[in-house]
């Protein structure tokens, strides 16, 4: 199949990707497997290290005690890639290297794999920018520490570990390339599962209001258009969350990717007034509380999260509207807590409050809106509010068929939910 996209030099941005011909919203532009990938450190025990499926109960590698798998088939498929890593993880146990280090080590291993053909890529690993010269001294020091960790990791149990490329390889440059070019791998519901390097997709430049989205099915990346795109028009994705004020988005982009965003949304500070609406003293308290609440979420301390988060919401009712991004983030955390605790009525209240702000901040169609509508629809259906659930599911489907595609696992699940509601209501 002929490529629908091509590499070009984007004025003021360097390399980029653009459309070869006219593209319609929802069209699949590119499908890619990673050069290398790994499960995120915080999800090591909850995601299969082969297919990246989430599960409550997974088989554990009997050697390193770290890698988890759905079944023996997944474990067997992963073994060629996991073999050398397994011995190194076992040697370092209980220490586990950071995601960037484990990913870099897998990239080194992939350089030896004859199955990978660089000619299939639009952008080779060697062309990736490390941006070392652009980094402040403090960040350079941090990368040097990661580089030292990488050296220790690849040398661990060296007598039996797989060989690596030439010892004079610039590992610091590799770590820089990884941190600036890797992608977060998420499931269909946009929950982080791992990190991976997809060389050709690193050509995509950023826009806070992009014309494309990247979705994942397991480890496979799918690039889809979310708007109609004209021939020779540049393809863009968003590197950062749209639900953040322009100053915060720009700071994140400068720190991580080393450029000053000049997109229309940032230049006009579009939506900033809505995002920071309400009493500043109050929303600053919410902002300061979020990191500790997010830690409780990660640790699955749902009762504590609900108690502390509910107190913040109740204590500042009316001081900030739901459109305030820090209250919105808090509502999302409380939604997760209530679902996990089985408090579905309260969960629906929090979920419903997030829908209007989501529509305000996320470009239509955006996968985040579709996923949130689906979550709310599931709660409505569970609570017997079938007519409302049907409307939520229909709205979600209109979005997901564009952003995820009609064959995605989540879209198929959504179609089943629509059929269930129609059956409950006695409709065709």
What would your notes on this structure say?
With 428 residues, this protein is α+β, with helices and mostly antiparallel strands. The protein contains 14 helices and 12 strands. The strands form 5 sheets. The protein has a 3-stranded antiparallel beta sheet, with no helix packed on it. It has a 3-stranded antiparallel beta sheet with strand order 4-8-7, with helices on one face. Helix 8 packs parallel to helix 10 and helix 10 (325-340) packs antiparallel against helix 11 (344-361). The longest helix has 21 residues, at 72-92. The chain starts with a strand and ends with a helix.
Characteristics:
single chain; three-stranded antiparallel β-sheet; globular
């Amino acid at each position: 199949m002929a490529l629908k996209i091509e590499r070009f030099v984007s004025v003021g941005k360097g390399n980029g990707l653009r459309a070869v011909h006219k593209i319609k919203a929802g069209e699949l532009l590119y499908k890619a497997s990673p050069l290398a990938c790994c499960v995120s450190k915080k999800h090591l025990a909850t995601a299969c290290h082969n297919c990246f499926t989430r599960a409550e109960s997974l088989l554990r590698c009997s050697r390193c005690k770290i890698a988890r798998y759905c079944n023996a088939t997944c474990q067997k498929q992963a073994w060629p890639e996991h073999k050398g890593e397994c011995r190194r993880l076992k040697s370092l146990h209980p220490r586990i290297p950071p995601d960037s280090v484990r990913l870099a080590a897998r990239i080194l291993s992939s350089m030896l794999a004859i199955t990978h053909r660089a000619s299939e890529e639009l952008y080779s690993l060697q062309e990736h920018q490390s941006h070392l010269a652009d980094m402040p001294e403090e960040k350079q020091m941090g990368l040097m520490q990661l580089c030292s960790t990488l050296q220790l990791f690849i040398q661990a149990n060296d007598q039996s570990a797989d060989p690596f490329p030439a010892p004079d390889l610039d590992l610091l440059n590799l770590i820089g390339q990884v941190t600036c070019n890797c992608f977060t791998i998420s499931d269909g519901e946009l929950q982080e599962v791992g990190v991976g390097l997809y060389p050709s997709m690193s050509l995509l430049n950023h826009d806070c209001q992009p014309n494309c989205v990247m979705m994942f099915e397991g480890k496979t990346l799918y690039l889809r258009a979310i708007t109609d795109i004209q021939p020779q028009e540049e393809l863009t994705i968003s590197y950062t969350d749209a639900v953040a004020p322009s100053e915060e988005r720009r700071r994140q982009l400068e720190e991580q990717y080393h450029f000053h965003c000049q997109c229309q949304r940032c230049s006009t500070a579009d939506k900033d007034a809505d995002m920071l609406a309400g009493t500043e003293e109050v929303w600053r308290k919410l902002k300061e509380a979020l990191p500790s609440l997010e830690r409780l979420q990660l640790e699955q301390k749902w009762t504590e999260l609900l108690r502390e988060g509910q107190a913040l919401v109740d204590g500042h009712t009316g001081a900030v509207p739901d459109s305030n991004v820090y209250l919105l983030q808090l509502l999302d955390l409380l939604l997760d807590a209530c679902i996990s605790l089985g408090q579905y009525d309260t969960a629906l209240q929090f979920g419903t409050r997030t829908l209007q702000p989501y529509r305000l901040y996320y470009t239509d169609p955006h996968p985040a809106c579709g996923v949130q509508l689906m979550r709310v629809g599931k709660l409505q259906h569970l609570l017997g509010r079938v007519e409302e659930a049907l409307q939520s599911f229909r709205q979600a489907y209109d979005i997901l068929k564009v952003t995820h595609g009609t064959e995605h696992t989540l879209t198929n699940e959504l179609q089943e939910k629509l059929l269930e509601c129609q059956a409950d209501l006695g409709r065709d």
